[in-house]
Amino acid sequence: MNPSIPVEVLAVLDRRHPRGFDFADSGRPVLSVHDLAATRGDGVFETFGVRAGHPQALNAHLARFVRSAASLDLPEPALELWRRAVLAVAERLAGVEFSVIKIVLSRGVEGSGEPTGWLSGRPAPDHSVARRRGIDVVVLDRGYRHDVAATSPWLLQGAKTLSYAVNTAALREAARRGADDAVFRSSDGVVLEAPTSTILLRHGDTITTPDLGLPILAGTTQDSAFDFARSVGLKTSFSLPRVAELENADGVWLLSSVRLAAPVRSVDGRPIRVDEQFTGALVQHLWDRRD
Amino acid sequence: MNPSIPVEVLAVLDRRHPRGFDFADSGRPVLSVHDLAATRGDGVFETFGVRAGHPQALNAHLARFVRSAASLDLPEPALELWRRAVLAVAERLAGVEFSVIKIVLSRGVEGSGEPTGWLSGRPAPDHSVARRRGIDVVVLDRGYRHDVAATSPWLLQGAKTLSYAVNTAALREAARRGADDAVFRSSDGVVLEAPTSTILLRHGDTITTPDLGLPILAGTTQDSAFDFARSVGLKTSFSLPRVAELENADGVWLLSSVRLAAPVRSVDGRPIRVDEQFTGALVQHLWDRRD
User: So what's the pLDDT on residue A7?
Assistant: First the structure.
């Protein structure tokens, strides 16, 4: 056994290869400048945590990957191929305590009619400080009404697309305001999601998350967080939280696959209580997930 | 002189190269899978027409490129370098009657802190049928209020970003409805722009285009179209056109750098008059542009 830990793993889907994908040198360029991922953000992705070589919530991520691809009229991802490829990449990260795998399906090189797919894995960044101390967030208008997903599917609001420029701009705006992250609200005042996280609110003994009919992504970590909440005797529900309910919550968390659960310690400068014990147990629950 | 016409030209910005860029083999991969162009649509671009080696509206495109980059907090593009690179690529396309050059600046490989820039040139697709016969369009809700650009700059509405998944989804929705193109309206009913074009409306002897305070891209072809309109005795103005004004217009055109001017012959199935003579003269004016 080679004890050295690989810094990075890259695999590329390849129909000519017997197993349907092949490993590649992550230091070398792989994509054409005409790949629609790079010229149009025209593709979908998933990012998930991998603990000691075991991908977390793999089925949930693959299911969302398929739904996202359908939203964009991409060819349906061959699930079993992707699963095998993910497991093969994860295996090479077995020596890493916690790593992250991103899988991407783009519409491919313009005019080729053939999608491009790749998987990259690397050690996860260290989010322990955010998980312990909490984060400051600001509320930003996402510009959409809360019901836009139902009326205008071409806005792709349920899909995890590569077109993330607005999400990254929102994070820069948050930083400009001295915050760590942003929370999007709809133009009519409903709390939606964070640029790369799902929101969890606590009021008394109830944990809520924004309803999936809103223009948001169905969080893959939120399911597990609800499981945890119920296991400690809390009620769980989906709702259309107003911004005031965010500001007066007894607890707020941003959930995502790699940071897991980050407690919010302030919203637009107003303090939010951070329950270290509850958060610690929630993070541990998410950390221990298998699929 | 080699009389063969290159099918495609690719140049990549390269700080180590004495002239600041270098030509590359367009058939080979150039981009890392970790380039934020490919993973986040996090960059800006311009596309312009090149007639027999002469880029059209180059200054206007470069100026918008700089504005887009500023919106995304990208490093300011070195204008003179980009100009030289564009002209060098265009020179290699001198044997092509009409070609298209795309220039792209991305935030670069994640974590590198260094942007990626490239230029690709190729013969333009043939849009003569659309220009002559006209196109059918459908109106789609862009989901944003008409004043969102002023209130929420993080939505990047004035910037030409690589995050175009919604634009391409709108084009697929248009095709599903049997149309050639889409026209976006705001959630409160103001006509905005098409996914890859600026809109021009004619009512009597007045030509209007949606106001630049709207969440739209400032069209680089629209200036020239206004020049043309005034040269034939029409008035020009910016406005906040309602959808009804689109439907009852005496003429509608979609303007873009490569298709130039495509007359609209129907909006959601209602016929719009196509003035072949005016359109032909407008296209010729745009075709003859130099910078």
Answer: 77
The pLDDT value given to residue B2:
46
Closest CB to B164: pick one of A40, A142, A143. Answer: A40
The distance of B48 to chain A (nearest Cα, Å) reads 15
The residue of chain A nearest to residue B106, with distances taken between CA atoms, is: A38
| Chain B environment of A11 (Cβ under 8 Å) | none
Helices (H), chain A: 36-40, 58-71, 79-91, 128-133, 148-151, 165-176, 222-231, 243-247, 276-287
pLDDT tens track for B105-132? 999 999 999 999 999 999 999 999 999 9
pTM, two decimal places: 0.95
What pLDDT shows up at residue A6? Answer: 55
Nearest-by-Cβ selection for B172 from A73, A152, A187: A73
Taking CA atoms, what residue in B is nearest to A147? B143
In chain A, which residues have their Cβ closer than 8 Å to the Cβ of B43?
Answer: 165
